[in-house]
Amino acid sequence: MIRKVLIANRGEIAVRILRSLHEAGIQGVAVYSDVDRGSLHVRLADESYPIGPAPAAESYLRIDRILDVARRSGADAIHPGYGFLSENREFAEACERAGITFIGPPSSAMAAMGSKPAARAKMAAAGVPIVPGGEPASVAEAQALAARLGYPVMLKAAFGGGGKGMRLVHRPEDLLAAYERAQSEAARAFGNATVYLEKAILRPRHVEIQVLGDREGNLVHLFERDCSIQRRHQKVVEEAPCPVATPELVQRMGEVAVRGALAVGYHSAGTFEFLLAEDGAFYFLEMNTRLQVEHPITEWTTGVDLVAEMVKIAGGERLSLQQHAISRRGASIECRIYAEDPSSGFLPSPGTLATLRPPAGPWVRDDSGFYEGAVVPSHYDPLISKLSVWAPDRRAAIARMRRALAEYAVTGIRTNLSFHENLLAHPDFQAGRYDTGFIAEHTAALCGPTAVAAEEETTLAAALAVAAAQAERRPASGGAPEPGAPRLSPWVIQHRAFR
């Protein structure tokens, strides 16, 4: 039985894990870099230990320091969260050698799925549909492979993700430069310049299947999530269920994902990511051998605490879920709230959160790693929180998310709140008509006006100017409001001018 867990992470995911641990009566140990000393996860943990300077390479990526804290604190398990060391095979193996339980999959499964070319081969052997492609060893091989596949093609880093090392190539004359840039970016981001090339699926949706399994080979899926709203291959908004997926399609994708997970001896939580083509065909993209950022929407719709299940499985418990008994209800949407400025190319906006008042009310969840007065550092991902909602159906979920966004108050930094408002109000999103290129195609409509600079916020004139700008991007008030649209009073409009 696991009694004390070290969380090898920071921010909202560390807070999220702590909450499930405390509900289970398990102690949580936090680690922190110098700039995270006052962070929320440090305040909520039962014990907290410093592990180094702000750069992740000197703190959150230091396996030796994290294991040293685990030994000193008496932690018998480590949860890696997502990002940092969560998919690092060496970290999982180091935990195994140290006699510390790694709350995640076995290192062998991480190795099998960590290399995209190897994972593609493994999945193809297991009968999982994959996009045609291969791993060229040179530019000449890449050119020959692209010619056989036909343009457009996609170049991807073989040992990474998150959109880094990816290039879409439409013409043969552009391949050389794209290949070199993809290699260079992959080497910088992942320490390995290997890239692979595959046929590009145009206007796809990005749909993923959540899987969960125990150490005895019992494996289930918990349905799908649509993660197609992306910016530069980074997810921004996710929802469940997928607006265009039929129950029959979801069942097929779920069966394929379970088959693929069994093929690599997988246990714990994991996610199979697929590209869903316009004709309904789907293709294996990759497997994330960890908890996903967007896991709350699956928890909303299925009622399953994925973090709690991961801890139980790591402790040797048998999976209590059976596929035929798993059901879901309603619809859920998640918006990632970032400290960034959409009107300036989404530049990060670190700084002090002078005001932070997240929304509340029925069926609203805000997973955050910050509090009012805390500092959003410049050294890490600028995610402030994950705002998610649940409702009986998709239309009601959109209305609830719009209401929640209207209540969200942040000052001191810039955020992407207005971007999310514009997105949720867009008729194509409301109709479920979107793919992975949606943001790129509608950038002007989605980015819109943003809040005034902090130094202007003390003047009433600035407040009124921004209120007027926000009013311009909302439906005219002369007619009846559109169904589900939040009604904003003049007081709310003026308050929002200070965001």
UniProtKB/TrEMBL annotation:
It comes from the Bacteria. This is Biotin carboxylase. Gene3D superfamilies: ATP-grasp fold, B domain. InterPro entries: ATP-grasp, BC-like_N, Biotin_carboxylase_complex, Biotin_carboxylation_dom, Biotin_COase_C, CPAse_ATP-bd, PreATP-grasp_dom_sf, Rudment_hybrid_motif. Residues 1-444 form the Biotin carboxylation domain. The keyword Ligase applies. Keywords: ATP-binding, Biotin, Ligase, Nucleotide-binding. The lineage of its organism: Bacteria, Pseudomonadati, Myxococcota, Polyangia, Polyangiales. It comes from Sorangium cellulosum (Polyangium cellulosum). It holds the Pfam family Biotin_carb_N.
